Amino acid sequence: MICSAKTLYHVAAFGWYAYVVQYLYAKGKEEPPDGIFPYGGPWKYLTFINLIVQMLFFGLTALKDLQTAKKDSKVTLLCQTKDLLFSVFAFPLGMLVVLLFWGIFTYDRELVYPASLDGFFPPWANHAMHTLVFPILLGEVMLEQHIYPKTNNGLAALSVVGFLYSS
User: Fold this and answer.
1) Lowest mean pLDDT among 4-8, 135-139, 160-164
2) Which one, of 92, 97, 91, lies nearest residue 112 by Cα?
3) Helix, strand, or coil here: 159?
4) End-to-end CA distance of the chain, in Å?
5) Helices of type H across the chain
């Protein structure tokens, strides 16, 4: 079996996000500083949901790459699901998290990532959650050509997810 650079990239990205999610899950068992995870756990944070979406997307993409290495490359349900997940959830959500976090952090750090969290989350974890998402998604845009859904369908799916998050 021949592994392409694209396959290695997708497997590495999946492994990275799986590691970060596992690290955050283990951190949730420690005694957090005041104001973090008091109710709703990590699921109330868009950053955590973004990491789960990125992990699922790159897991599906790696699976698709490994699957197409075995047989003819054609558009399958897995390929369509991967493209929908990327174009409607993974890319918009990832960019939203990066831009909002760093925009608010620049304006007033205490609003989004208080200094009290510096002792709880090391700097690499902060950048794993809020910075590295951008270059990893940028690499995905450059490596893989995606089939995008119709605008109305994509906006409808994104609206449903936005509504579910806010309710």
Assistant:
1) 160-164
2) 97
3) helix
4) 46
5) 5-27, 46-68, 77-84, 91-107, 109-112, 123-130, 133-143, 151-166
**Burial class of 152 by CB neighbour count within 10 A (0 to 12, 13 to 18, 19+):** exposed
**What does each C-alpha distance from 11 to 56, 97, 130 come to in angstroms?**
11, 22, 20
Taking the model in full, what pTM does it have?
0.89
- pLDDT tens per residue across span 97-150: 999 999 999 999 999 988 888 888 899 999 999 999 999 999 999 999 998 888
What 3-state class would DSSP assign to 131?
coil
Cβ distance 40 to 67 under 8 Å? no
Cα–Cα distance, 58 to 161 (Å, whole number): 19
